[in-house]
């Protein structure tokens, strides 16, 4: 059984009298101890999916699914009290934008301690202080810095501290939303190393969200790619990042970044922009930007199909064979 099991998840926002489906019929599973990546351009629904799982969406958002389960617990039917006790204790999130994720008038140590105290009120102050020191050391920050305020931390240190905060209550699953955005390349590499090391050492399951496929190629066992609210490809990261990407969108996304070992290949962008989700197009949502579209692409929505010769690998494109799922 998967630790996180999402089937047919749809999340819609009502805007100007129109339902905008930010996440549309998405399936995604994360096993215990597995690191899964979720990729796609800004606005494709990645962060909305993370907020739906952590139950942090505004009340006026409409969330529907055939299944939204965490370790056998139905997240859709939880009351607010149960959600609060689950969130952070078993299921935590590293928010996008670590720069703004901390309260500027509380020390870093006090903020991590508050999370522990909220979920483990019987813990002594001393035990919590020791745990904060241990967490900071675990992410490479001197425990002596626990008394510093967020503005005294660099961007990389704030990102490390937000990871420490997410680990504070020993969760089973951590969702990291764009964990390296806004960091310089060297700091980015250090944070990626840190995340992978912690996932391995602690046996954590992680869902890592990024628009940058190179980040996911460093970290993940499996990756799903979203486009305009839908998953268009999903499979083993090793296959997808070593020339085995099957969906034209994933291939174009990979072409946007330098590939290690690819020599002097030129980097290309993807022409055009994602469709307006208030009025999504018929057929394949990528067809207006796809260099290999066929006439049926503009009218028939492709189903996710098995990619021939690649186990556990599916993609939604009319050019891909296999049995329709
Ligand atoms: Fe391109 Fe058609 Fe495949 Fe969509 S279904 S990615 S438009 S070839």
UniProtKB/TrEMBL annotation:
Q: Does the keyword Cell wall biogenesis/degradation apply?
A: no
**Domain of life assignment:** Bacteria
Q: What topology does the record note for this protein and the membrane?
A: Peripheral membrane protein
Which residue numbers delimit the ABC transporter domain?
6-253
Coiled-coil regions, chain positions: none
- Report the locations given in the UniProt record: Cell membrane
What this protein is called in its record is ABC transporter ATP-binding protein
Organism, by scientific name, is Mycolicibacterium komossense
